[in-house]
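Known limitations

Files may contain more than one protein. Parsers should not assume a single record per file. Below, a two-record file is shown to illustrate correct handling: read the sequence, read the token line, then continue until end of file.
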Amino acid sequence: MQLGMVGLGKMGGNMTVRLVRGGHQVVGFARNPAVVASVVQQGAAGASSLADLVRQLTPPRVVWLMLPSGDTVDQTLAQLRPLLAAGDLVVDGGNSYYRDSLRRSALVTGWGLRFVDVGTSGGIWGLEQGYSMMVGGTPEDVERIRPVLETLAPGPQQGWGRVGPVGSGHFVKMVHNGIEYGLMQAYAEGFAVLQGKTDFGLDLHQVAEIWRYGSVVRSWLLELTEQALAENPTLKGIEPWVADSGEGRWTVAEALELNIPAPIITLALQQRLRSREVDPFMERLLAMMRNKFGGHEVKRES
């Protein structure tokens, strides 16, 4: 098969090397020419524009987008519309909101094109260990990109699957990331309790290493935590500021809409928001409330 790759993140490089070795052609395009040059060195063909990318593909084409969620995807689809023809397939492999994927699918199918959404997990380690991919689309459309999915996954029959119709891939990935928030928060709280028990002089890296084997809390995330503690046991120099990609917010909103309680994911999201408070007004107000109703002492800034 031929594949047009737009965005060319780390996943694109991985796809390029493996697909080319498997006898398939990949054409890559990114705004940064240096990124295109990098995948060309790995055996892919490079494109100077979206139009150039489409010209190099034989119909029916497959164009895989690896772009940031939001307007960038919509803008790219608008640019692709006059370039593609009926029967061509567009794949969104980024972290798009599933409701946007439903909207985009209706849009591109109205143009005579096909659409598949692929929720992709694995991060920078996917290059080495393969990616987990949750795929939404018709069985026929998913079958068209099977060589790509089997190439990128940990194994041809492992780590990927069609989970349902269009939109379901990004929906499952959204919930996956919500669960990730909760797991990360639980590990962080547990290790904070261990670190706070100074009487025992615990070696947090040692504890993480012990838990990696046989423990019911062992996981790949724990392995990464162990690596982080090995590199920087006290986390010196790390600012306590935690970002969120947006998928935790979407998961919480969906849970509320479905009347499903999701307290752990919700609190984990709120904790991330709290980590970014440089000058927390909330706690200042709480201190003044206690002072007003009970005359409790207020600490003054020096």
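...continuing to the second record:
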Amino acid sequence: MIDSRTSDDGLSIRRRRQCPQCGGRFTTVETASLNVIKRSGVIEPFSREKVMSGVRKACQGRPVTEADLAVLAQTVEETVRQTGASQLDTNEIGLAILGPLRELDEVAYLRFASVYQAFDSLEDFDSAIAQLRADHQDRPARAVD
């Protein structure tokens, strides 16, 4: 190996190599595979599109663009890859979506959280809304132009 560099997104490694016999040089790109264990036990590769699809449902009727969803999916992938695990269950991915989704749209966050945090009563919604309100009070006020 002559040279090794991490890609800008941190998801792959580019290596320059040289054949010891002929001296020819070539490049390899290495990526870590990330698999998802579904509730049924089936294992499949991680898919940003599936993240976007799940979040898209929570964002119906909200001012969220496809570009917003793509950025969110990339953020989630980077987050789950940073765990170093090669396999994650769908619930862990759902929980990794909550933070970025909350920043994107709080209504969509509540919709999504109600599924992934298994809200089963009005008190669960009240608690989540109270937490959002408390967080709003703790943030400094934005300057209005």
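Parsers that stop after the first record will miss the second one. For reference, the second record is described as follows. DSSP finds five helices and six strands in the chain.
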